[in-house]
Structure to design on (424 residues):
């Protein structure tokens, strides 16, 4: 899917990262961006927005989310330490490994039953989390990462109650607690509508409450920041950690007041952070997901229920029960969607996980999803109708579809570059 030319794609649902449509205010900000190499006005505008929204003392811009992980993770993780998450996304998992650590997923059991509805399928399994800490020893756990929303589990919400529980465990064992905050606004929206305590609380106050429980956050701002490029590292109060981050940022990203971004991008992000937490915008955004999800379920197409905050995850195991995990049912469905209607998507399953770094064996994923990631402020209901009909057509011929095998793959993050051929 990543090797396709964009011009050969009709509806592009490969990702919601950096594919969003910026507003007129953001484009106006682009024209006003301060391109000073050091200390530009746009940098300070972004700092003000970040401190206001998240309540953190230190905000460091970087060029995207994986850059935030590249800077922060090697500071926190020592070689052979374990990092535990409700679920790592592919690039976050890779940066744990590249830092010398070992990633372990610890998602709640509700997430593993896609067809059954639950409000907070993105939650950490806190009992398992504590068991893992005791099993490996707290000194061998380098960090806990809470991904909001939980992308790999289907863009699923994480409750405030769960965030608090995880924070308490992190404090109890003195373990660094980081939030992977790519879709922080969508998660706050779900908390507002599904958690009784917060039904009368504003989105921004829910966000401030969320982030006060962590030590730091890493963020791809290309999602809920509604920009085409950008990321953030947030550090609550630790001055020494911030100094380490600044030093690595200068080496990897550029001087601290631009962090690998042009001044115009800093300005657009300062504006986009506020637009992304607007409740009316979030209401419309969620309605798009609900429309797509409800129509697919009505057509008896299995999904991770409920719809995620940034997309709908089609259950490829249910669509192709005859295709084993090592023949990649999720990726197979992605290919069929492109063949059917020129729709590009991506696999969230075994193909994305790649091989075990110790054994070299293909990892079996908890899920085999075809992710329909919806860019923000881009597609209309008519586009969704095409997607729905394409999946209905594939379901009618699903029993004839065969899986794929890998003919070449790189050492890490294989699904970005691997070559495959169909099973004969």
């Amino acid at each position: 899917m990543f090797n396709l030319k964009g011009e050969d794609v009709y509806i592009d649902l490969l990702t919601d990262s950096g594919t969003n449509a910026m507003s007129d205010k953001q484009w106006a900000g682009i024209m006003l961006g301060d391109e000073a190499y050091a200390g530009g006005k746009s940098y300070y505008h972004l700092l003000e927005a970040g401190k206001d929204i998240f309540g953190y003392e230190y905000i460091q811009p970087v060029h995207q989310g994986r850059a935030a992980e590249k800077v922060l993770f090697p500071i926190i993780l020592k070689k052979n330490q374990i990092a535990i998450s409700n679920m790592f996304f592919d690039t976050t998992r890779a940066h744990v490994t590249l830092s010398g650590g070992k990633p372990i997923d610890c998602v709640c059991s509700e997430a593993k039953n896609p067809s059954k509805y639950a409000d907070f399928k993105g939650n950490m399994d806190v009992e398992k989390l504590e068991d893992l800490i005791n099993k490996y020893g707290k000194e061998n756990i380098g960090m806990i990462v809470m991904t909001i929303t939980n992308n790999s589990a289907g863009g699923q919400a994480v409750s405030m109650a769960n965030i608090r529980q995880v924070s308490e465990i992190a404090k109890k064992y003195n373990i660094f607690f980081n939030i992977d905050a790519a879709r922080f606004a969508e998660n706050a929206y779900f908390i507002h509508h599904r958690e009784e305590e917060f039904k009368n609380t504003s989105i921004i106050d829910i966000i401030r409450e969320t982030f006060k429980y962590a030590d730091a956050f890493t963020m791809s701002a290309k999602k809920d920041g509604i920009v085409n490029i950008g990321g953030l590292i947030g550090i609550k109060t630790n001055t020494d950690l911030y100094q380490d981050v600044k030093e690595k940022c200068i080496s990897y990203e550029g001087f601290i007041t631009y962090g690998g971004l042009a001044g115009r991008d800093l300005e657009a992000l300062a504006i986009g952070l506020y637009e992304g937490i607007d409740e009316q915008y979030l209401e419309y955004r969620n309605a798009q997901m609900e429309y797509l999800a409800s129509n697919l379920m009505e057509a008896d197409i299995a999904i991770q229920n409920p719809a995620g905050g940034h997309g709908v995850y089609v259950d490829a195991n249910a669509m192709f029960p005859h295709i084993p995990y090592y023949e990649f049912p999720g990726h197979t469905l992605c290919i069929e969607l492109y063949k059917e209607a020129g729709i590009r998507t991506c696999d969230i399953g075994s193909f994305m996980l790649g091989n075990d770094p110790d054994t070299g064996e293909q990892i079996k994923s908890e899920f085999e999803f075809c992710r329909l990631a919806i860019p923000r402020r881009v597609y209309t209901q008519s586009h969704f109708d095409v997607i729905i009909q394409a999946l209905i057509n594939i379901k009618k011929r699903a029993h004839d579809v065969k899986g794929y095998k890998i003919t070449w793959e790189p050492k890490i993050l294989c699904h970005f570059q691997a070559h495959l051929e169909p099973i004969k």
